[in-house]
Each structure stands twice: as C-alpha cells, then as structure tokens.
C-alpha cells in the first residue's frame, strides 16, 4: 500500500509539472529570453504488420489477409528551462500495439532536472520524477520512431511484450559526465519504482493475465558509457536489480509471490561517416518465489545481436541485423522445458534475421520498411498469442511505418 501511495503521489506531482509547462500562463510570465527556452515537440506514426504464419500475431491480428494496422504511436513532449541549471521535462504518449497496449494516454516521462556542477571537464546533476531507465543504447529514445535503428528494436534486448517494465521508473536519477582528451565517460544511477501495473508485463512474467496485480518495489539501475572521438567509438555496460511482488485477488489460486529480475548488458558501437556497427550482449537472471502452488524457479537468459547500418546519403539508409534470444541459457533449444511442461520448445528461443530500409522523405517525414525471418517464438506477446501450442516455429514478418515529427 505504501509503494502504491508513493507512486500515486509522484505521478500527480509530475502531471502538475507537465501541465504547468504547457499552460499558457507560463509563457506570459516568461521574458523574451525564457520564451526561447520553452520547447514543444511531438511525433506520430502509423505502422503496418503482416506475418506469413497463420498463427503468430504481432501488434494485433497480423495473420489475417490484410495484416494489422493496430500499430500507432503519438507523443507530445515539452521542456522548460527557467534557470541555466534547472529544467522541467515531460512527455505524454499514446501507443496502440494490439492487445499489449490499447492506445490510452499516459505520462511517458516527467521530471525536474537540476545540474549542480557544470564545467568544461565535468558535469553532475540529479533528476526527480519519472525518468527513462538508462540501459543499453536505445532504451531512453525507443519511443521516438526517428531515433530507432529499425521499426522493431532488437527484441532480445528491448522487449516490446514487457515494454513498460524496462521503460521508466519513478524515483531519483543521478548522472555525471567526465570529459577528457582520452574520451568521455557518462554515468547514470537510478533508484526508484518500476512500472509493473499493466497486463502485458504481468502476462510476460506469469505467462498469462492473472486475477491479482503485480506490485512495484524499490529497484536499482545503472549505466556507464565511454565515448571517444565525438562518439565514433562507444562502449557501455548496464545493470539493474528490478523487484516486484504479486498481490493476489480473492479466490486467486496463486499466493503473494516475489519477482527479482537482474539484467546485465554489454554494448559496443563504431560509427563511421557512412556506416555504423552495433552489438549488445545481455545476461538476464530471473527468480520467482512463493507463487504457491507453483514451484519456485530461477534461470538465466541470454541475448545478443549484431547490427550494421549503411547510410547511402542523407535520405537513404539500410539496416541488417541478426538477433538471438534464449530464455534459459542452460536450455537453449527448449527441450527440457518441453519435457517438463509439455509446451513447445520453440517458445523458449528466437533467432531473427532482419533487413530494412529507411527513407527520409523530408527532415520531418520518414518512411520505413523491413523484413524479418524468425526461428522461434520467445518474444511473441502472450496476450496476442495466448496459447503457445498454436504458434509456428518458423515464420516471416513484414513491417512498414510512416512517421512525422514537429
């Protein structure tokens, strides 16, 4: 109950801050210089998904003849800097992705940022509110289509079926940067409460939407990135301890259990004038306890991808990626899982070969298309695909997306 109250109060505070940013009275109270520091931006996109399998649905009923158009993203963000070292930032987001998200408006992030120290060689600050979780290269900017390397991010690292769990936390973020001739180091540390109050996260962790509710608990996240030559070389390591509990409903067959999720991600990227190479490797320890009558379980998952991007010119670029996910690194082919549960072995792994192209029609309008050849179903949404026995191991996915920003 205390955790829920803390989150509710924090969300109300952030909502008030965001409305204050957007309210016209803020503009009237600001002088000419402050007006220049108020920035409002936004984006919207419409996507299309078609899977060749007659069983595997992605972002809606993508197996039907015409595919699925239930893939839509709309966001409006604002930032206001009344002082040199103080900034308010927030974003409202609506996302339609089949059964996982029905398109309601939510606070994507909303925080106050205070920079305590700023010099040519270093910077240190603190953010209070709902901040994006700093892990990997793409998590903090994954909402905006223009900042993603492809329509679908590598699902082995950046799960869409449990997106809210990894997306943001309500709490405190400390950040610092050191700049020197040998390179720049950026460090971020977050202590706060992850977002677990959605049915897609519950279904991803507990395999289906249960009568009770997941409850958030204090968690910790951190990331360090080293950059050299203005970002030509980037190396990063991210880690977290994400904690959650389960509050059973009346007549629930599950007891009040606890969940511990400990991912460790290593990231590397090299950027040249016309091409970029990126790879990330992750280990994910998961422990579920006290979900009686279920037996306590723990396992370590493994993920990695290799990705290349080639920029033909400012308007056109192509992406090629190989993405691999193992739910349990000790049972990579899922045979032990099948013997123990009777469920398909391919629900425990996924290997995805992706080819895509991006066309920047104008600086504000982007068109994308991509093809996925997938072996395995481990990252399919359990809400769009409630019965893993009725999915196909080998399948193709075609995706297209048009995006606009302002």
Summarize the structure.
The protein has 406 residues and is mainly beta.
Name a few traits of the molecule.
about 400 residues; 16-stranded antiparallel barrel; 17 strands; about 15% helix; globular; disordered N terminus
SSE topology:
Elements: H1 2-22, H2 24-29, H3 32-35, E1 39-51, E2 68-83, E3 86-97, E4 102-118, E5 122-132, H4 163-167, E6 168-180, E7 183-194, H5 199-206, E8 213-216, E9 219-228, E10 233-247, E11 258-271, E12 275-289, E13 297-311, E14 316-326, H6 335-341, E15 349-362, E16 365-376, E17 394-405
Antiparallel strand pairs: 1-2, 1-17, 2-3, 3-4, 4-5, 5-6, 6-7, 7-9, 8-10, 9-10, 10-11, 11-12, 12-13, 13-14, 14-15, 15-16, 16-17
Describe this structure in words.
- By secondary structure, the chain is mainly β.
- It has a single domain, classed as Beta Barrel (Porin).
- It is about 15% helix and about 55% strand.
- It is built from six helices and 17 strands.
Largest sheet: 16 strands, antiparallel, barrel
Q: Quote the distance from N terminus to C terminus.
A: 41 Å
Tally of separate domains? 1
Radius of gyration: 22 Å
Mean pLDDT: 89
Q: How many distinct helices?
A: 6
């Amino acid at each position: 109950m205390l955790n829920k109250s803390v989150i509710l109060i924090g969300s109300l505070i952030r909502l008030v801050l965001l409305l204050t940013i957007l309210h016209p009275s803020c503009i009237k109270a600001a002088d000419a210089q402050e007006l220049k520091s108020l920035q409002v931006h936004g984006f919207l996109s419409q996507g299309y998904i078609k899977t060749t399998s007659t069983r595997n649905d992605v972002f809606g009923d993508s197996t039907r003849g015409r595919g699925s158009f239930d893939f839509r993203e709309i966001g409006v963000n604002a930032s206001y800097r009344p002082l040199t070292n103080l900034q308010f930032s927030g974003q409202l987001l609506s996302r339609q992705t089949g059964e996982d998200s029905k398109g309601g408006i939510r606070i994507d992030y909303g925080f106050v940022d205070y920079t305590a120290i700023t010099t040519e060689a270093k910077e240190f600050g603190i953010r209070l509110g709902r901040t994006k979780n700093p892990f990997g290269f793409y998590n903090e900017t994954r909402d905006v289509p223009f900042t993603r390397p492809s329509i679908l991010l590598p699902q082995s690292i950046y799960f869409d079926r449990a997106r809210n769990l990894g997306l943001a936390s309500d709490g405190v973020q400390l950040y610092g940067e050191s700049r020197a001739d040998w390179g720049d180091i950026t460090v971020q540390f977050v202590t706060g409460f992850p977002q677990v109050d959605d049915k897609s996260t519950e279904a991803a962790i507990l395999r289906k939407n249960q009568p009770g509710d997941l409850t958030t608990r204090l968690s910790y996240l951190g990331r360090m990135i080293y950059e050299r030559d203005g970002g030509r070389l980037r190396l990063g390591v991210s880690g977290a301890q994400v904690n959650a509990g389960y509050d059973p409903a009346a007549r629930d067959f599950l007891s009040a259990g606890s969940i511990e999720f400990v991912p460790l991600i290593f990231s590397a990227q090299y950027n040249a004038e016309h091409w970029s190479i990126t790879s990330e490797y992750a280990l994910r320890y998961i422990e579920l306890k006290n979900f009686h009558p279920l037996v306590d379980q723990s396992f370590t998952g493994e993920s990695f991808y290799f990705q290349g991007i080639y920029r033909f010119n400012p308007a056109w670029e192509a992406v090629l990626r190989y993405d691999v996910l193992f739910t349990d690194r000790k049972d990579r082919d899922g045979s032990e899982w099948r013997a123990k549960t009777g469920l398909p072995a391919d629900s425990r792994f996924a290997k995805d070969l992706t080819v895509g192209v991006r066309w920047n029609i104008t600086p504000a309008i982007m068109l994308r298309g991509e093809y996925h050849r997938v072996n395995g179903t481990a990252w399919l949404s359990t809400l769009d695909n409630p019965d893993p026995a009725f999915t196909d191991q080998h399948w193709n996915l075609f995706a297209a997306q048009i995006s606009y920003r302002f």
